[in-house]
Every structure is written in structure tokens, then in C-alpha cells.
Amino acid sequence: MTIRLMLADDHRMLREGLGRSMREQGFDVVGEASDGAEAVSMAQRLRPDVILMDVTMPEMDGVEACRQVRLDLPGTQVVMLTMHADQEVLASAIRAGASGYLVKDCSTEEIASTVRLAASGETALSPLLAASMLNEVRKWDKAAAAEEERVVTKREEEVLQLIADGCSTPEVAANLYISQKTVKNHLASIYQKLDARDRTQAVLLAVRMGIVHLD
């Protein structure tokens, strides 16, 4: 069965060249989109088996377009194409539901192989990219979990620690390169979150909770 392939890239020359190469590899190239928004609407209309999606496009970037396509068309697989193996984009792509991730300097044969793997429901990544992406996703997930567990924000922790160290409001502002008004806003937020009356009580509660430490 011939794989129905759609292309999404804002560079016309690259898109047309890729289309010719993929047809020569035996794919049925059913459509070519020039931006992310067009890729989403075209995919909904054509329902391709696989989309080769550029990461950087106008109107809507490839990762967001991938996310929308995968939500609307779970049977359509998306392989991301990019100029660089960026760690952050790798993590975003896997969260968006991408089945593959390729850098644009790869060979036509590698692209064709990746598309076939994606069409069969397999994750199609080179071992190096796969390891890189998985490590990044794990790192981001740990950071997200840690952030969810925070009673106060990281900046509020910094404000609390400086106050615990004996700094005044102007000194906290100077240390963190923020205005005194911003410090007061942080303190108001801290009081509310910790149910504290003043900075002394806030520091004592923060020490008990392990948020800050006294020397």
C-alpha cells in the first residue's frame, strides 16, 4: 500500500525538491503546505498517513501544528524536520506527538526510511537523537514535577532566603536587581501562600517547611 505523504515547509525550493525526492522513493505526495496553519487545515482535508513537518514556519510553528494534527487526526503521523537537533525542540516535539525527528542534512534514504517507520506506527529517530530527546524529556519532567511541588516560586524562595539572611527590602531589591515595589509584591504573595502575618512569621514557616535555611 502506497504511503500518502504531505509536506509542510515554508521554503518553496526545499519543499519542491523534497517532494520530487519522495515521489522517486515511491510515496504519494498528496499536498504541500507553506506554513503551520495551512498544514493543519490541509491535513484535516487530505488526511495523509504521514506529514514531514518543518519546525520553523510562519503563522504557526511546526511543533504546534504537529500538536493540533495529532489531536484532530490520531491516525496521521508527523515527522519533524529541522536545521539543528535542538534539545528544547526535541522535548517539545515528543510532547506534541511527533513520531520522528530529523535534521535537514540527512540523506533522502534516511528520510524515506523514517517516513516508512512512522507510517507503521514506530518511533523513528536515530539512536543519538533518541537518547538526546529522552534525556531532555526526563530532565524537563523532573523540573516540572519539582515546580508543581513548590509552595512558593523560585523567585519568592530567593526573597525569603535573603530576608532570612537579615536583608532589608532595599537590600533584597539590590541583590536580585529588582525594584523595592517588586520585592513588596513578592512578600504579599508569600504571606498569602504561607498564611503568614509578616516577614518574621513567613521566614519561620519557610524554615520549618525546608524552603529556606538559617546559617
Automatic annotation (TrEMBL):
<keyword id="KW-0597">Phosphoprotein</keyword>
<feature type="domain" description="HTH luxR-type">
    <location>
        <begin position="145"/>
        <end position="210"/>
    </location>
</feature>
<protein>
    <submittedName>
        <fullName>Unannotated protein</fullName>
    </submittedName>
</protein>
<dbReference type="InterPro" id="IPR039420">
    <property type="entry name" value="WalR-like"/>
</dbReference>
<dbReference type="GO" id="GO:0003677">
    <property type="term" value="F:DNA binding"/>
</dbReference>
<dbReference type="GO" id="GO:0000160">
    <property type="term" value="P:phosphorelay signal transduction system"/>
</dbReference>
<dbReference type="InterPro" id="IPR000792">
    <property type="entry name" value="Tscrpt_reg_LuxR_C"/>
</dbReference>
<dbReference type="Pfam" id="PF00072">
    <property type="entry name" value="Response_reg"/>
</dbReference>
<dbReference type="InterPro" id="IPR011006">
    <property type="entry name" value="CheY-like_superfamily"/>
</dbReference>
<dbReference type="InterPro" id="IPR001789">
    <property type="entry name" value="Sig_transdc_resp-reg_receiver"/>
</dbReference>
<feature type="domain" description="Response regulatory">
    <location>
        <begin position="4"/>
        <end position="119"/>
    </location>
</feature>
<dbReference type="Pfam" id="PF00196">
    <property type="entry name" value="GerE"/>
</dbReference>
<dbReference type="GO" id="GO:0006355">
    <property type="term" value="P:regulation of DNA-templated transcription"/>
</dbReference>
<dbReference type="InterPro" id="IPR058245">
    <property type="entry name" value="NreC/VraR/RcsB-like_REC"/>
</dbReference>
<dbReference type="InterPro" id="IPR016032">
    <property type="entry name" value="Sig_transdc_resp-reg_C-effctor"/>
</dbReference>
<keyword id="KW-0238">DNA-binding</keyword>
